[in-house]
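Quick review question:
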């Protein structure tokens, strides 16, 4: 039986990405004789205005009523082509895209085999488009509220941007917001005080009428669908009422076990917290608290919220330096760069003084870069981007504390890309900091308490050793535990490095592959504060644009079950991310 369909097949050379590997002429010859195919055309760039214009003209002239495209991934241009064919008068669901680039030309070196596969892919697309129906989309109202997961600089920025027009729920698993940035002393390259920049924004979040802040809270589960996420949060007890506590410190003075404290002076929320594992429940803190803020019987609380969009801003965690045993991180004077920062920051336990374990100021300090970064054996393959820069900042801070200090930075490659960053490198050199290009092999404690560093100088082609008072390890930046958990709950893909996969690394860097879910900051990969803030603003803008219409088009595509082949195994029910299938 002859088909009444008029199928147009359009193949893209993709500037040679496809055409240099696949013999598109051979594909044309194979496909042209298929039933229903009335036209086969090859273009250099189908996504261009000229390429789309050719398809549009053929539709408007009545030559075709169904479209097959052989080009790059439909993840990139499916919506573009659907909008185009709909505007030309064809139902957008009568379009089929087959991936001849990522799934064919990019993964096959043999042109003959690649061409054979391309023929099969295009023929399959033609057979599929014949069976497609003209369906009309349904529409669903979007919830207006937004969930931001992560209370670091990216999460704070996104929340404040969005709170101007809608309600935001900000979730942070620690007992305070501020993330890694609140533990910094200064920021590069301008040496601004980190607390001076961040603390006012933390207060803005806490006091904003459109922001509900949940600290000590984790996402327990996520249900629902795009634009209508039902999220269950679990808030762990603080044993102190944040709304009532005035951080007067009387409870801290009264506690004989040191079980209650303010996390640090600038902590937001500005409220004490009780370590229940240490607390003897003597009740002295309750007696001392005039505000009645102590809640020793507080239990974990589950809260269910309904939001239209979610931003993942879960940040990073430093790798455990113990993965490289030769560095002897257990020694008290082998510290991480984060521990270096905290000594000089608002979270300091040393009175904002840089000191060795014996309380003295170090006179000779080594910074070891790429600890667990760019390492195929221990740690991660990726570069952590900021280590070269913050080590230079820390070296300069050390010289301000002790102008006579002897400072050496051991690096593999000095990467100072970006505005003002190369100037930072020049200033660090001018300040007298030594740079040794080489890999540190071992850090060995000596009997006199000093630390011997053995290294390979790759510029001089020599093996060297030197002795230092303190060694600062610059650890690799890894995705936080929270990133992996929320990605799993939302069905968002993560890369081989563990970071959230963006929809497109160049042109859609804050969207994820799950519509309505966005990401920003170090959840997407290592970056500095500037880039984290920029991404957070971008994600907030994307969320606003997504929710502004008030409703979303739901694709009418549906599964078709071949009853005679179904054995009721239930796998489809388990795998459906929308919980839309039921056994009958």
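Suggested answer, residue by residue:
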């Amino acid at each position: 039986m002859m088909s009444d369909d008029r199928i147009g097949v359009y193949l893209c050379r993709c500037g040679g990405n496809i055409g240099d590997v696949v013999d598109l002429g051979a594909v044309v010859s194979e496909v042209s004789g298929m039933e229903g195919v009335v036209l086969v055309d090859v273009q250099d760039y189908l996504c261009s205005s000229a390429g789309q214009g050719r398809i549009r003209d053929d539709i408007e002239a009545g030559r075709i009523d169904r479209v097959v495209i052989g080009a790059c991934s439909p993840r990139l241009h499916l919506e573009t082509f659907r909008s185009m064919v709909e505007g030309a008068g064809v139902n957008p669901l009568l379009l089929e895209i087959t991936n001849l680039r990522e799934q064919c030309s990019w993964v096959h070196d043999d042109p003959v085999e690649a061409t054979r596969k391309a023929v099969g892919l295009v023929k399959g697309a033609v057979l599929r488009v014949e069976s497609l129906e003209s369906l009309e989309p349904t529409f669903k109202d979007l919830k207006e509220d937004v969930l931001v997961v992560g209370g670091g600089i990216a999460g704070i920025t996104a929340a404040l941007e969005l709170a101007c027009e809608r309600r935001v729920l900000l979730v942070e698993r620690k007992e305070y917001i501020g993330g890694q940035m609140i533990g910094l002393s200064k920021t590069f390259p301008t040496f601004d005080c980190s607390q001076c920049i961040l603390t006012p924004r933390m207060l803005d979040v806490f006091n904003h009428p459109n922001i509900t802040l949940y600290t000590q809270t984790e996402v327990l589960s996520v249900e629902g669908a795009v634009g209508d996420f039902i999220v269950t949060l679990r808030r762990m007890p603080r044993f102190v009422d944040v709304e009532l506590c005035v951080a007067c410190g009387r409870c801290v003075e009264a506690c004989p076990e040191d079980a209650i404290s303010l996390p640090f002076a600038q902590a937001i929320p500005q409220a004490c917290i009780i370590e229940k594992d240490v607390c003897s429940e003597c009740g002295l803190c309750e007696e001392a608290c005039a505000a009645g803020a102590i809640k020793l019987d507080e239990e974990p609380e589950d809260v269910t919220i309904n939001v239209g969009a979610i931003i993942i801003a879960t940040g990073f965690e430093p790798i455990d330096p113990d993965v490289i045993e030769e560095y002897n991180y257990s020694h008290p004077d082998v510290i991480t760069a984060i521990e270096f920062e905290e000594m000089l920051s608002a979270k300091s336990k040393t009175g904002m003084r840089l000191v060795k374990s014996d309380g003295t100021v170090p006179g000779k300090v080594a910074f070891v870069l790429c600890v667990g970064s760019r390492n195929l054996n221990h740690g991660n393959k990726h570069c952590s981007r900021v280590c070269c820069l913050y080590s230079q900042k820390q070296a300069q801070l050390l010289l301000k504390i002790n102008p006579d200090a002897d400072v050496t930075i051991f690096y593999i490659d000095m990467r100072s890309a970006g505005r003002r960053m190369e100037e930072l490198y020049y200033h660090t050199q001018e300040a007298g900091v030594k740079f040794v290009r080489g890999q540190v092999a071992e850090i060995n404690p000596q009997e006199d308490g000093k630390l011997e560093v053995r290294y390979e100088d790759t510029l001089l082609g020599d093996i060297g050793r030197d002795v230092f008072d303190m060694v600062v390890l610059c650890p690799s930046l890894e995705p936080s535990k929270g990133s992996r958990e929320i990605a799993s709950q939302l069905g968002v893909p993560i890369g081989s490095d563990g970071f959230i996969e963006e929809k497109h690394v160049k042109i859609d860097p804050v969207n994820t592959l799950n519509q309505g879910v966005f990401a920003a900051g170090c959840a997407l990969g290592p970056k500095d504060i500037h880039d984290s803030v920029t991404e957070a603003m971008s994600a907030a803008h994307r969320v606003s644009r997504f929710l502004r219409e008030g409703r979303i088009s739901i694709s009418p595509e549906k599964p078709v079950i071949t009853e005679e082949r179904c054995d009721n195994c239930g796998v489809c029910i388990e795998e459906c991310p929308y919980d839309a299938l039921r056994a009958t």
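Why it works: Residues 146-315+481-548 form a domain with the FAD/NAD(P)-binding domain fold (CATH 3.50.50.60). The chain has three domains: 7-135, 146-315+481-548, 318-478.
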